[in-house]
Write a structure and sequence with these properties.
The chain has about 475 residues and is an all-alpha fold. The chain has 22 helices and two strands. The longest helix is centred in the middle third of the chain and has 24 residues, at about 220-245.
Amino acid sequence: MTQDPQSNRYCTRCGTRLSQYNTETCCGSCETKSREQLESPYRTPPGFWHTDQIRDALATWHMGRVIFAYRTHPFHARPLAQETIATWLSLTQAQLSRIEKGPAPEQLSKLIRWAQILQIPADLLWFRLPPRNVDTLEDVNRQGFLRVATVTVASPAALLDALTAIRPTPIPSIVGIDEIEQIRKAAKVFSSIDASGGGVVREAVLAQVRYAIGLLNTTCDPKYRDSLHSAVGYLTHTAAFMAFDRYEHDDARTMFSLALTCAEAGNDWHLRAKIHSSAARQSIWCKEPDDGLTAVGLAFTRPDRLTATERAMLHTTHARALAKLGRVQETLAAIGRADDEFAHANPSEDPPWMTYYGAAQHSGDTGHALFDLAIHGRFVNEARTRLTTAAQGHSDAYLRSRAISATKLASLIMATSDPVEAAAVGHHALRDASHLRSRRAADDLRELRAFAQSRTDQPHVAELTDTIDELLPLG
């Protein structure tokens, strides 16, 4: 399973050796950085706005045509997707499409905001931008904000009273594509927060889930009904996984069940597979690997309807359950099937909740399965290689995954090899773990401490255990 040195390939951006499971031309870290760069407009060169393509669009006094010229400008390696620009402008893809193709937008406040976001030079516009830092008509009600801020300074109790007096957002009587896109965006935002370390967002995500579920009882055009169920299921799954990560297991199981109901009502086989996989991971974590096997089996009901990435994900979950049961040969076979599927992965085919599953994630998930065999002396090098690839490949956007993989790698080295090297890897993991609110990550650190306990005659190991003790509460 180890890569032949003769066949090494390297990232075309940073020169890092590519994992044998990565079929792209750049490493997972560079790929993620490239995606992150598109989450907000980046600085364009001075000549960008002076090409004939941009000038002609500006001359039409039609912001939609200017946006189209911007996103198809040759400066970009390839045209930017409408969804990318729409996210920058706080629009849906459908709204941006109408702006580009429809009549020229005339609402000045919107034109100003879009021009400022895209950083269009003021001297090229057909309207005047306000002085810097002046609020436009569509900004947050600044006077209202200042009133609340004044209360904050005066009295926290008064602030609480003021906030509880705010009426919740009413459920609309008719649900359309805009509301559905808003649910999807909320799910992506919460998923991103969760993957990068989590935070005090439990009540926020639960409020969004309650609101989204309320939309299921409203009038919706039949052609959007499946999309609505899918979007609500996506958001509810995100909330469920966050609950699982914080050991709110009963809440997680309830929300996984609700998410599955939505996925099936929306005929979304992709989301259905993801929910079963996440529920299986919870069962495996809760020392119920047989239940995990059952959940994975349900996810594989129609594998022909899934992408190669999704099938790879399910095979790795299957392998993790088998490894917990000590079924060595079946574990290796499942990892082999996962590798074969991942070799054919095409991210452009995957649903949005699968963007996390790149080379680093695949290496980490299969490495975790091998870990349960490696601590008993089997396939130690292969487990170590995969966990190293994961720990080095995850970017800051996937801080929790990086910390967990690095912690597992440290535990493996501590149990089977050099304790000093293990301590060094462990300290790296601790730097990431210190930013997390993940009870799974905390328990992995406790496991590392248990492996290190018998090696504390080494000063570096003793320092590591002391640092873990300082970071984690007892228990």
